[in-house]
Amino acid sequence: MKAILKLFTVMSLFLTFSCQDDDATLESVAVPQNLTVSTDITTDGSGNVTFTATADNAITYRFIFPDGSSDVAPSGVYTKRFTKTGLNTYTVTVIAYGQAGVSTSQLIEIEVESDFSDLDAIELLTGYNPASGSPSTKTWYWAADVPNHLGVGPNNDDLSQNYFWAFFSFTDPFALNFDAASCAYDDEFIFSTTNGENLNYLYDNNGATFFNRSYASVAGGTSPDDQCYEFDTTSGGTQTVTLGPSESVVAPERKRGTVMTFNDGGFMGYYIGTTRYEILSITENRMVTRAIQGNDDFLAWYQIFTSTKPVQNTGPVAEEDNFPNLLWSDEFDTDGAPSAANWTYDIGVGQAGWGNNEEQYYTDRPENVIVEDGMLKITAKREEFNGQPFTSARIKSEGLQEFTFGRVEVRAKLPTGVGTWPAIWMLGADYQTNAWPAAGEIDIMEHVGREQNTVFSTLHFPENFGANGVSESTTVPTASTEFHVYATEWTETQIRFYVDDELYHIFENDSSKPYDKDFFVILNVAMGGNFGGAVDAGFQESSMEVDYVRVYQRD
């Protein structure tokens, strides 16, 4: 093995002048001098070469390699693995930089022997076909649709744990779909080759990368948690990847034996301060990698990638249904009390504030419930009444208008005020003999003043009730200033929830749930309680206005 000095040392000068500052001059800049480069070339066939560069007045060094890769080493010490099989000659450029950009460089020629080769990995990474010999490119993605696509475990000699995410993993598919990590699934990892031997890489993060919290400062962040940050990964163009033999603690039978090393700070998606990723396994459409965190060599991170971009199943698909037949309705076009043919009242405080620690006393007084100007108005008021600080109303179609399955539409404008809790909902008609939650509850719309303009739809039944009800929410920016149509479509197989005909919640119904029998409609405005929360001290009164209630059924 040999290292031969091929060219004389040359010096270049790059100076930036300012018309306001003192002029920089050649005499004031210390040019790097006496650049020397030594090499330590391994003889084990691994292809590893350690370069040690020294120069007077140098503050950093850059090594440029014939495969197009380069890297900076302020210490002047840098190890490179040359992967071309056999004994090969390489010309390496070493540049010593001083202050103000002055530099001195050398070209050296080395002979390196490498007996490591994993052409199959290059073919799998890039889709290269040796028969055609054409350049090839292949894009990989997070395998977001499979469990454990990101996890962490120990990097130690415990063979029972050091090959998988023994400490923690995101067990659910698409588990990173939360605000702090939402950028991750936009990542594209693009591998390419021109001849089946070289390997190039471009990481397109679409503008943002998911960072380990200990590296937030790299992106200018300060969050104490893992976080997506804006980060440029594409302006530098493609990077070179070299393949080498694995030297990890993982048992041979649990790994492929190949490590990818990315030049120029390249990495794969989750920023943990490393450029080396061991390939534990790879097929045409699946790759599992292991990487050691740069600032904590006790932690090994695992990622799973796929060459087919996963598409998240957003939930069950709405069934096509038609509800042409009007079963009953109330248009609230007769002033006075609500129609006795459709509505009756709940009066009082119920048991334990209607089971929710609510603070109102329900009445049938016109001050709290009245039909006027073509609208039903339910008004919650601050007033001492029968020991309660508020009054309101709750009307129901129990015993008058009960039905099984159909489409329920209620056009309403909601009250305002922190502590208000209006609701449009249905209860199983057998609740007196089949106590809640066994009777079943369908909340078509709930709103709380402390979360203004967010409406909720929820189902309560024996397996899921109270705070564990099956719930979804959506934003209605004008919930309290404009009328909106809140609707549910209820069938033997689905219960679907809409606002202004926009579907936002689907529940899969079946015979094991209590939604195959008569229910009735309830309209009310509660105050405070478990969901409504503390009432604003300045609250005086506010109303829910209802334009109509309509129930349709299928043919």
Compute the gyration radius: what is it? 35 Å
Unreliable residue stretches: 1-24
Query: What's the total helix number?
Result: 3
Please report which band the strand proportion falls in: under 5%, 5-15%, 15-25%, 25-35%, 35-45% or over 45%.
35-45%
How many discrete domains?
A: 3
- From the spread of the alpha carbons, the general shape counts as elongated
The CATH class of the largest domain is identified as: Mainly Beta
Helix-strand category: mainly beta
- The percent range for helix content is under 10%
CATH topology-level fold name of the largest domain: Jelly Rolls
- Going by CATH, the architecture of the largest domain would be Sandwich
| N- and C-termini, Cα separation | 88 Å
Mean pLDDT: 92
Classify the oligomer: single chain
Number of strands: 40
Largest sheet: 10 strands, mixed
Helix-strand blueprint:
Elements: E1 3-5, E2 10-12, E3 33-41, E4 48-56, E5 60-64, E6 70-72, E7 77-81, E8 86-97, E9 103-114, H1 119-126, E10 136-142, E11 150-154, E12 168-169, E13 188-193, E14 200-204, E15 208-211, E16 227-230, E17 239-245, E18 258-262, E19 270-271, E20 276-282, E21 286-292, E22 299-306, E23 325-330, E24 344-346, H2 353-357, E25 360-362, E26 369-372, E27 375-385, E28 388-392, E29 394-396, E30 402-403, E31 406-413, E32 420-428, E33 441-447, E34 454-460, E35 470-475, E36 484-490, E37 494-499, E38 502-508, E39 519-527, H3 529-532, E40 541-553
Parallel strand pairs: 15-19, 25-28
Antiparallel strand pairs: 1-9, 2-9, 3-4, 4-7, 5-6, 5-8, 8-9, 10-13, 10-22, 11-12, 11-22, 13-14, 14-17, 15-16, 17-18, 18-20, 20-21, 21-22, 23-40, 24-29, 26-27, 27-28, 27-40, 29-39, 30-39, 31-36, 31-40, 32-33, 32-39, 33-34, 34-35, 36-37, 37-38
